Amino acid sequence: xxxxxxxxxxxxxxxxxxxxxxxxxxxxxxxxxxxxxxxxxxxxxxxxxxxxxxxxxxxxxxxxxxxxxxxxxxxxxxxxxxxxxxxxxxxxxxxxxxxxxxxxxxxxxxxxxxxxxxxxxxxxxxxxxxxxxxxxxxxxxxxxxxxxxxxxxxxxxxxxxxxxxxxxxxxxxxxxxxxxxxxxxxxxxxxxxxxxxxxxxxxxxxxxxxxxxxxxxxxxxxxxxxxxxxxxxxxxxxxxxxxxxxxxxxxxxxxxxxxxxxxxxxxxxxxxxxxxxxxxxxxxxxxxxxxxxxxxxxxxxxxxxxxxxxxxxxxxxxxxxxxxxxxxxxxxxxxxx
Length: 337
What we know:
Structural class: mainly alpha
Shape: elongated
Distance between the termini: 47 Å
């Protein structure tokens, strides 16, 4: 079953191929059951989906199932594993059908992590229109999976990623009701599992992206509330680089939306303090440098404020070039807003 490649046969079948033919001819039903159980056993080894588990994923992805009657659930897991290894991936409908089979059979519980990854990946590949329709159905399957397997970190992480992806789709579609529901659910997930860094990351990124969208729409009062929430999250987890990066982005984005000189000065000074406390964080450094350069190009009084803060930075850091030169505005390549 596992042997593949182009090894010379010298005119007769290799042992693996000969055994395969014999089982298919004389024990076809048993062969399918064994292949299904073997596939499920491999899928059950994939709990964290990290490099240590890569051999199991590669083994499952490489199974030759042509002409073998394996279970539909096992086959979907095999295709999900193939996508995990960079090959073809199942359709959203196939993954959802597998999730429904999973619900009705508790013996499949060890496969929860791989199935959750497949559901999240299905949401990732939806179009913007599909995300607003089919996305809800896939998300519901993930919710149920997380409710039954809340002890599996990978399942919870996949739910958090799926919520963030659908929140992003709602922001692009300017669907305010959907946006608030998804952000609230992501917030509640973070509150329920405060020790999970991936969930914190998704929540902090969701807060920042929502802040950007609302700022573009002119809802500045709501932006302040979101910034306060991010500030509080960073206060609770000051050593979490993902939360810190999202907070730095939010400060920079709020700066760009502010027209009040006093508020502007307060935000810029807060960004400066965040940088001086974390000078090796490239994202914080980029946001601070970007804010300074933008501010220096503004008319009075903002440019005066910027020059005062830059002067203070020079006194504390000793070299203004170290602050500005590592990052030019034209070099920034953002993935989070």
